[in-house]
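A quick aside before the break. I want you to see a complete sequence-to-structure record at least once, exactly as it would be stored in a machine-readable document. Don't worry about memorizing anything.
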Amino acid sequence: MIYPAFIRYEAMCAAVLGNYVAAHVGQDQEPLQPDADWATRHMAEEHHIASFDPGAFFSLHDFDSSGAWTPDEILRTYGLEDESAKDVSREKREEVVSSVMTLLDRDGTGEVTHGAWMRFMAEGGRLPDFGLGPGHHGDDEYEYEIHHFEKFHDENTREEDLTHPEDIAHFRKHDQEADAEEAAEKLSHLPIVEQNIPQKFRRNTI
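That is the input. The structure line, written in tokens, reads:
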């Protein structure tokens, strides 16, 4: 069974972080220390990376490779653009961005540069834990693979063994997406898509 998102993620780690960090992706992790900071827990739980340096952490979460973190990238790092965070209030989201910017954007530029991050870490700084969990920001395939399949299944799992509620929901979503694509493909071959015509302009055939 092949999991493209997880393979893409390993390739991305090798490209962005180097072979040392990539070699730690997907391997068994030692238990986290009770006093582990949020970034360490995030890397272990969300990325299965046990050993990293501040520069590697910054690059991994510089999602557009611009050399700086924007407010949107801070939200994404904390998992606030993931579907699981849909009920987090706007006030909480603003608190996350404001708190991180206060710590790291000392020049008031509206972003966090690589240099600012490295200085912050050299001074013993740590990203705050806002109580929002480990920070999910992979796609659906990756999140399913790393947070469910790896915990409860393995490479010998057969399709008929994927009976957990998480398995059923995951593959139901696949089926729904496939059905939607098929319907869109059929509509694209029609000379006129009746569903796209406002009701008042449709010809009454009754």
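Two observations worth writing down. Residues 25 and 48 are 5 Å apart (CA to CA). The longest helix spans residues 165-188. We'll return to this after the break.
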